[in-house]
What we know:
By secondary structure, the chain is of the alpha/beta class. The chain has helices spanning 18-30, 49-59, 74-84, 104-112, 130-146, 163-169, 179-186, 209-223, 226-254, 262-295, and strands at 3-11, 36-42, 63-68, 87-92, 117-125, 155-162, 190-197, 301-306, 321-322.
Amino acid sequence: MKVDLSVVVPVFNEEENLPELHRRLSQVLAGLVPSWEVLFVDDGSRDRSWEIIRQLAEQDPHVRGLRFSRNFGHQMAFAAGLDHARGEAVVIMDADLQDPPELIPQLLAKHREGFEVVYAVRTARHGESLFKKLTASLFYRLLVRITAVHIPLDTGDFRLMGRRAVEAFRRLPERHRFTRGLVAWLGFRQTGVPYERAPRYKGSTKYPLRKMVRFALDAITSFSHVPLQVATWLGFLVSAFAFVYILVVLALKFAGVSWPGYTSLMAAILFLGGVQLTMVGLLGEYVGRIYDEVKQRPLYLVAEVAGTLPEAGEFPAGHGQLEVHPS
Length: 327
Ligand code: UDP
Ligand code: MG
């Protein structure tokens, strides 16, 4: 059973936001399209989020839910949502109302003009720390410089994708996922719609520094080999410097000047040691990711569903596994 529009929402401990999100989404969608669904993907919440999703699904036939067997991460929740959404067009957005549902009509209008992907571009970010805004801004500007795929600036995951883009996205099998980059990689006609990012409605961020760093590393390693190539350039640079240095030392030696040389030796050893360890660590980041890919594990496991179950064979090759058995 197809619908006109699906809204996919990753949820991690968002109990306070779900009722308000549902209310605002319903208001916007009711007048917009004849048939729609809201698909909540509960990424292993430890609060009452799943209970609320189940209640919403009981009261409102538009609501469906998937519950992961544990916390697999925001990006995996997108993969699961896009695997199970039935819409001709699919919107993905956060649960904390930082992405206003009221923008969806504009996204859809652009899609109807013929754009396969319509992403929301933040012109301002309210209620976020200076540190977050600064690191995010630096990160996206660095990313654009070192990647070949054109990843639009100041764009989060809030976007609308047409069915063609969704089906193409579902064929990307990688485990370390940077959804914004992957969608940019798809190509087709893409465009942006500006909006102001609201502060979080309730609760606190689910992205501590640790997750932000991992996310940034996944983004860079998935789309760029530049960090690996840094080794080559550093190698050249250090070798050139060493060559000149050797010439100088030899000339001095022949001129009869020689000295114990402890300082220069230590400097060279420490510098080279630092460079080498850094590059070995970088190699490790890539090798570790290759290892994760080789293992070929499913991206996520679904433990429970709410609302109507997918019909048998409705979603063949997806990224994950449905570990539920309808009773
Ligand atoms: N989220 C998730 N899994 C996680 C962390 C976050 O599904 O492990 C969801 C979260 O519930 C929210 C969205 O991802 O809907 C964005 O998270 P958050 O608002 O905390 O990030 P921020 O806006 O602070 O960058
Ligand atoms: Mg947020």
